Amino acid sequence: MKTTIIGIAGGTGSGKSTLTARLRKHFGEHEVSVINHDSYYKRHDELPYEERCKLNYDHPDSFDTELLIKHLQALRRGESVEVPVYNYAIHNRSDKTITVSPAPVIIVEGILIFASAELCDMMDLKVFVDTDADVRILRRIVRDVKSRGRTLDSVVNQYLTTVKPMHEQFVEPSKRKADLIVPEGGRNEVALDMLIKWVSNHLQTE
After folding, report:
1. Residue 135 is part of which domain span?
2. Residue 171 is part of a domain; what is its CATH number?
3. Number of structural domains, the chain?
């Protein structure tokens, strides 16, 4: 089985997950497997919670991208992988893993996946979701407070101290590496239709 890897990048709250979810729903989990870069945040058992809160989670060095690359290589060989599970409430990896199985299409999603040249080289299609900064921060606040057990003050402080400057330094420049730029993510029906056709053509050639 030939495996095609699609990278979906973009700023926090841009709509990457919505676009990814709609693609997977359309084709089904047997045709499309998904890996989130966030799952590969490095483990920091050596630091207390208070110190983990201060780490910069929006810098490329905060991710174990080397492990992600190894997992993608294994999936291309037809092997299942055990993807780490990250606990946002405690700012650390949990002891759980999720099994991801090989599929004709692997979607890799994350804000900084285009920052790694080696990771980029593995991708057959690179998509950047481009959404207005005001919309993105509002989505992030709602998501982190409701779903990740964060306080409003902590989300705003993190956005101003690391998320925004790291976006400007690493995420926005990585847009130049994209093959396709999608405004508004999963809400862009025209772009979604284009991606569905692209994936369909790949699946038909198998």
Report:
1. 4-204
2. 3.40.50.300
3. 1
Q: What is the pLDDT along the chain (206 residues), one digit of tens a residue?
A: 789 999 999 988 888 989 999 999 999 989 999 999 999 999 999 999 999 988 888 899 999 999 999 999 999 999 999 999 999 888 899 999 999 999 999 999 999 999 999 999 999 999 999 988 788 888 878 888 877 778 888 888 888 888 888 889 999 999 999 999 998 777 889 999 999 999 998 888 76
pTM value is 0.89
Spatial CA neighbour of 161 closest among 57, 88, 61, 86 = 57
